[in-house]
Amino acid sequence: IFAGFTGGEIGLAVPAVISVNAVVNYDVALAFMVSSALLMYWISHSPLGLILQAIGQDRVAAEAMGFNVVKYKLFAFGVSAFFSGLAGAFTVFYLGTASVGTVVAVGVAIQVIIAAVVGGRRTIVGAIIGAVFLILAGEVLRPLGDLNQLIVAAIALFVLLAAPDGFVGMLRRVGERRA
After folding, report:
1. Could you tell me the pLDDT band of residue 107, with boundaries at 50, 70 and 90?
2. CA distance 129 to 8
3. What are phi and psi of 147, to 5 degrees?
4. Percent of residues, the chain, with pLDDT higher than 70
5. pLDDT for residue 67
6. Does 172 score more than 70 pLDDT?
7. What does the alpha-carbon distance between residue 12 and residue 78 come to, in Å, rounded to a whole number?
8. Alpha carbon of 137 to those of 72, 78, 110: distances in Å?
9. Can you give the pTM of this predicted structure?
């Protein structure tokens, strides 16, 4: 009924609002990533971040200490939604179309989870390392076609079995051995 307005299954064509130049788009995306990582790092190392960590460890104990757990969980949800929404908007402009198939894809959600877990759970740097790993592995293994996803998944599974804390945990252990 609204296919003429929304584009139907094809979706809406989104003009290059940020820039037509790929280098400028890369610079904007990099600036967004760096500023987001710095803001999340600042939040995680602030007193607010400590409260959120306490709630994540033991909700009942955090409530017993007098923290309004619901308020802090709503704040964490809002921050998460803010960054997810901005990332989704950048993805739409990158792909040039807004459709259900590109925005609400199960494969994208799985890749985000794999990147966070393989890189290192509960760390901002780990998520970045995991995302870089997934992108580089996907590009290096691209000539293999659909087999590349199986190989990347096998590598991710191996990393999780060998190092449950991901690449960041492996790097920490190597640093501890040297010290």
Report:
1. confident
2. 37
3. -65, -25
4. 82
5. 93
6. yes
7. 27
8. 37, 32, 15
9. 0.68
| Closest C-alpha to 118, from 84, 169, 174 | 169
Q: Name 150's Cβ contacts closer than 8 Å, sequence gap at least 6.
A: none
Do 131 and 118 touch, CB atoms closer than 8 A? no
Residue 152: pLDDT above 70? yes
Residue type, 132: V
Residue 45 CA from chain centroid, whole number = 19
Going by C-alpha positions, the residue among 94, 159, 97, 99 that lies closest to residue 129 is 159
Q: What is the 3-state secondary structure (H, E, C) of 48-93?
A: HHHHHHHHHHCHHHHHHCCCCHHHHHHHHHHHHHHHHHHHHHHHHH
76: amino acid identity, one letter: A
CA angle, 10 then 11 then 14, to 5°: 125
pLDDT at residue 175, as a whole number = 84
DSSP 8-state symbol, 12: E
Amino acid at 81: A
